[in-house]
Design a protein that fits this description.
globular; 2 helices; mainly beta; 14-stranded antiparallel β-barrel
Length: 286
Amino acid sequence: MCKLILACCMISICWMQSQYPLNSMPITSRDLSFSGGGSAIKSEQISLNPASIVATEKGLNFHTQLLPTGISLLSLHMIYPKNEIIYFTSISNLNFGTLKDGITNEIFYANDLMINGGLKGNLFQIISGGASLSYTLSIIEKSMAQSLLFSAGVRTEITEKQIGFGLTLRNLGFQIDHYEDATEEIPYQFQFSGFMKPKHLPALIFSDIVMEENIDGSTLITGMEFYPRDGLILRFSDSGLYNNGFELSSLAFGFQFNLKNWTIDLASRNLISAGFVNGVTFRKRF
């Protein structure tokens, strides 16, 4: 039970107070290296902002993460562009591992499973929009909770690949059932994102603000995506909670390279007091 409490505290710190973290936590290594930010930047993977997805060919992505206290994440994503619409779907499992009740010494398990699907298209010439619907099943020992959540986002570029903005609204929905008699409303999240390209640097600099219902303060995320040469991308970011002052909560780094028809992403995020999250992504291009 102590391990579960520590895990829940770690998840609350990193992804605000989300009761269903899979719907708002960074799953891809790209999003992990961005500390959950950069959602106004175009992405060839399923992103926290569905409006930022770009694809000209079908793609199959496999993501895995190792989190503190032995928590692990496995996720499989598929992207299918057709005409002017990009369709995407994913299945993700957050495994809290083997847990032990500190009072009874009983061994039990906890898992979150999410199935997600959505689409992205162009609303106007310079504005794109996307939306997704996710079903989440959360199990702790013999208790079970389920939710159905909707997320939507928009993205625009004022000047092509120079300055862009994005808006994302997450966690609109309801619980189908609850842990025993515990009922709780799911707080929504709002994320505002922006990026710019420096004139003399092959990079994009971004900044995000994440606000959540019933939470005092906001999460501030800043970072950079750097392109030193073709086929190699480096990413850096930091995040922290701003509430009557700024408190740093994480530092992250990652890089991406191509190997034949595969794209490989590696990322690591230091959660300061909670430990490291390490992630790997394999993407197959068809």
